[in-house]
Amino acid sequence: MIAIIGKETKKVYVKGDQAYCFRTLHEKYPYKNGIVYPEPLLVVNL
């Protein structure tokens, strides 16, 4: 199980298994020309 957390705001964007977390991020923040997230993200093992 992992959590994806914002580096600057410490906001927890999503928790769950790895596939679920990255799928959810891709759905919330789709991109075509590179990765566009609101801030740098940390992937933390729980």
Automatic annotation (TrEMBL):
Superkingdom to which the source organism belongs: Bacteria
Protein name: Uncharacterized protein
Naturally occurring in which organism (per UniProt): Virgibacillus dokdonensis
Organismal lineage: Bacteria, Bacillati, Bacillota, Bacilli, Bacillales
